[in-house]
Structures are given as structure tokens and as C-alpha cells.
């Protein structure tokens, strides 16, 4: 396991990990930027799950806007993570995003 990922996951299960209810507001530009970062396969699993659920909720209200909510690599058609990339846009068999 990657040491950095292990630290992220440990931060989730340590005493700080308590159930929290949030109300969050975004401008359209901020929501797009949030999705660019948090729908990425490199995002922490828990926050990625939140982003996927947020995208589903937006799709139910504004289906045309939900098309703009995608990982940055999908928008750019290349991965800005460079060598840190876990996926390649040219690999059609791997899912890029939900």
C-alpha cells in the first residue's frame, strides 16, 4: 500500500472520523472545479464517493449541467498529473469517471 494513501485512510478511522452533516453551497464555477479534482481516480475514496453522489443529485435537477461535472483529465483529454497519473485517456477499457 502506498504510504501516503495509508496515512489518508488512517486519518479517516482515527478519532477525528465522526459522522458529520454538512450543507454546502457552490457557484457553478466552483462546483465544476470541485468535480475536476474530486472525481479523479487519485482522490481519496470517501471524498470521491461524495463527489459521485453530488453529481447524481445535480443530474436529477440539471441534467445538461451535469455533463460539465467531470474529472479534469476527461475535460482536457490528457492527465495533468503526468507521471503520477493512474489512468491514461487512451485506454478505452478503463472507466475514466462515474
Considering the chains and any ligands shown, give keywords for the structure.
98 residues; mainly alpha; disordered C terminus
- Enumerate the spans where pLDDT stays under 50 for 5 or more consecutive residues: 88-98
Determine Rg (CA atoms, Å): 15 Å
Q: Which percent range fits the helix content?
A: 40-55%
Number of helices: 5
Mean pLDDT: 79
Largest sheet: none
**Content-based structural category:** mainly alpha
Question: What's the β-strand tally?
Answer: 0
Straight-line distance between termini: 24 Å
Shape assignment: flat
Order of helices and strands: HHHHH
Describe the protein in words.
- This protein has five helices and no strands.
- The protein is mainly alpha-helical and 98 residues long.
- The chain is flat, with a radius of gyration of 15 Å.
- The two termini are 24 Å apart.
- Helix content is 49%, strand content 0%.
What are the SSEs and their pairings?
Elements: H1 3-13, H2 28-38, H3 45-61, H4 63-66, H5 72-76
Could you provide a short overview of the structure?
By secondary structure, the chain is mostly helical. The protein has helices at 3-13, 28-38, 45-61, 63-66, 72-76. The longest helix is centred in the middle third of the chain and has 17 residues, at 45-61.
Amino acid at each position: 500500500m502506498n504510504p501516503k494513501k495509508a496515512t489518508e485512510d488512517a486519518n479517516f478511522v482515527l478519532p477525528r472520523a465522526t459522522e458529520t452533516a454538512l450543507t454546502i453551497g457552490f457557484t457553478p464555477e466552483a462546483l465544476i472545479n470541485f468535480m475536476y479534482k474530486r472525481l479523479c481516480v487519485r482522490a481519496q475514496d470517501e471524498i470521491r464517493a461524495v463527489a459521485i453522489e453530488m453529481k447524481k443529485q445535480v443530474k436529477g435537477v440539471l441534467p445538461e449541467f451535469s455533463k460539465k461535472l467531470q474529472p479534469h483529465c476527461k475535460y482536457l483529454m490528457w492527465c495533468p498529473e503526468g507521471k503520477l497519473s493512474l489512468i491514461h485517456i487512451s485506454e478505452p477499457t478503463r472507466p475514466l469517471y462515474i
